[in-house]
């Protein structure tokens, strides 16, 4: 125990010394320039990534399995060394200023790796000390209460459910009060209630000034929370855009027309319109650009009337972020 205490003191001392280094002023919490990663076997996981993440935003990084999301996060956090390029976090180079950048960053990994025989309280408190932070039991209590872990503070982690263990990982990442928080698939395999609890927690963190970067397979998670969205596939960052701007630029609207009488084929007079006839012949779907001054809807409805095509109902549908994501990944070279 004495030796463990000495090790912790040395870690705290080293981190405090590193904190005295001067950071380069920057409006961005994270800046990535020309970052690539090629593994020994020749596999290129990342290809010249450029990315700026603004202070105080929630940034969602989307991509299919194997796209390079976790590799990029690991490089920014200083866990994996890039083959090329530079990364700064809060103005500090993540390689040259490793101690200071790690003190600024909290990471919640995908894997449920925890100190199985430790209590929740001891594990979270120790995590704070690792980053040179002075003891602050009030902060640890607040984190545990925010994550609905307070009644489990004296329980050994090995006795907790999977969802509770993931909450402990988040508590450990927040113990040292980081200004940048990475959540790598934070809600994978957890129940809906926990997902919504995490969403609320992430919003509170953003309101307090914390920059949050999350990777997720759940597109609704990004649509619900993110300020900006990045799409990565095959190691390349193919798009970074404000979520609402992205949906406005790439989202499509559809007019769905329910017909009074099913038809086998489209009448010749409708050939020039972006129309699809459903398999049962009972529905017409017209795709249009909602931002255009002329959507073509008025002309289409007039033609339907001229051709004697009667309809009983019509309504519009709008592309979701998931639709946009799928189309981007499919179209990527």
TrEMBL record:
Keywords, ordered alphabetically: ATP-binding, Nucleotide-binding, Transport
Coiled-coil region(s): none
Disordered, as annotated region: 1-31
One Gene Ontology molecular-function label: ATP binding
InterPro entries referenced in this protein's UniProt entry, alphabetically: AAA+_ATPase (IPR003593), ABC_transporter-like_ATP-bd (IPR003439), ABC_transporter-like_CS (IPR017871), ABC_transporter_ATP-binding (IPR050763), P-loop_NTPase (IPR027417)
Domain of life, source organism: Bacteria
Classification via PANTHER family: ABC TRANSPORTER ATP-BINDING PROTEIN (PTHR42711)
SMART domains cross-referenced by the UniProt entry: AAA
Protein name, UniProt field: ABC transporter ATP-binding protein
Organismal lineage: Bacteria, Pseudomonadati, Pseudomonadota, Gammaproteobacteria, Lysobacterales
Domain ABC transporter span(s) in chain numbering: 30-259
Pfam families, per the entry: ABC_tran
Gene3D superfamilies: P-loop containing nucleotide triphosphate hydrolases (3.40.50.300)
Bias-annotated ranges (Basic and acidic residues): 1-19
């Amino acid at each position: 125990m004495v030796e463990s205490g000495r090790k912790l003191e040395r870690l705290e001392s080293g981190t405090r010394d590193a904190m005295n280094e001067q950071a380069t002023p920057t409006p961005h919490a994270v800046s990535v320039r020309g970052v690539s990663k090629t593994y020994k076997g020749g596999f290129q996981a990342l290809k010249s990534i450029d990315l700026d993440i603004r202070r105080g935003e929630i940034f969602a990084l989307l991509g299919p399995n194997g796209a390079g999301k976790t590799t990029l996060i690991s490089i920014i956090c200083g866990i994996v060394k890039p083959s090329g390029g530079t990364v700064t976090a809060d103005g500090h180079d993540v390689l040259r200023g490793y101690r200071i950048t790690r003190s600024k960053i909290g990471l919640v990994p995908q894997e449920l790796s925890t100190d199985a025989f430790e209590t929740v309280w001891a594990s979270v408190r120790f995590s704070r000390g690792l980053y040179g932070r002075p003891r602050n039991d009030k902060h640890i209590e607040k984190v545990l209460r925010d994550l609905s872990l307070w009644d489990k503070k004296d329980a050994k982690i090995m006795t907790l459910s999977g969802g509770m263990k993931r909450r402990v990982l988040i508590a450990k990442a927040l113990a040292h009060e980081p200004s940048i928080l990475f959540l790598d698939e934070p809600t994978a395999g957890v129940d809906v209630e926990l997902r919504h609890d995490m969403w609320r927690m992430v919003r509170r963190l953003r309101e307090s000034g914390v920059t949050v970067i999350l990777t997720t397979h759940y597109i609704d998670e990004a649509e619900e929370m993110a300020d900006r969205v990045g799409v990565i596939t095959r190691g390349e960052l193919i798009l970074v855009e404000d979520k609402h701007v992205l949906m406005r630029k790439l989202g499509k609207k559809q007019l769905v027309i329910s017909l009074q009488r099913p038809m086998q084929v489209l009448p010749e007079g409708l050939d020039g319109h972006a129309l699809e006839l459903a398999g049962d012949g009972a529905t017409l779907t017209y795709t249009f650009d909602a931002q255009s001054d002329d959507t073509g809807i008025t002309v289409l409805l007039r033609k339907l009337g001229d051709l004697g095509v009667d309809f009983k109902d019509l309504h519009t549908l709008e592309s979701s972020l998931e639709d946009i994501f799928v189309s981007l990944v499919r179209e990527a070279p």
